Amino acid sequence: MEKGIQMGKRVLIVDDSSIMRKMIRKTIESENHTIVGEAKSGDEAVALYAALKPDLVTMDVTMREVDGFAAARAILSGDPNARIIFLSNLDEEKYSRTAMAIGAKGYVNKHRSREILPLIEDA
């Protein structure tokens, strides 16, 4: 048996839907990760990232005003080591390429949100 217990990650959830934030929270907390904050918009995500310094961000793509891609670019410009995983219902092939080009660690369809768990472990 290993000596140290691996600590869960500190996660910031970004999604404009409170129902989705709740579902993502439940999924992530089921694996002993800690939700340090929730943002409803890209602007809020950038501000909370700077204030909370989470280990990881789950990011929705489509949000009013500042979308997830713009927010991710802003976060990564301030912290090139930021770890961001996109969760979206949008066309996986098209948008996952954009997410990876920005520097995201992954892209998961919201309907298969449990697939985010291995990505969190690896991030």
Strand order of the largest sheet: 2-1-3-4-5
Mean pLDDT score = 90
Based on secondary structure, the structural category is alpha/beta
**Regions with pLDDT < 50 over 5+ consecutive residues?**
none
Summarize the amount of helix as a percent range. 40-55%
In sequence order, what are the helices and strands, one letter per element? Answer: EHEHEHEHEH
The CATH topology turns out to be Rossmann fold
Question: How would you describe this structure to a colleague?
Answer:
The protein has 123 residues and is of the alpha/beta class. It has one domain (10-122): Response regulator (Rossmann fold), CATH 3.40.50. Helices cover 42% and strands 20% of the residues. It is built from five helices and five strands; from the N terminus they run E-H-E-H-E-H-E-H-E-H. The protein has a five-stranded parallel beta sheet, sandwiched between helices. The protein is globular and about 30 Å long.
Key words describing this protein structure:
123 residues, alpha/beta, Rossmann fold, 5 helices, 20% strand, globular
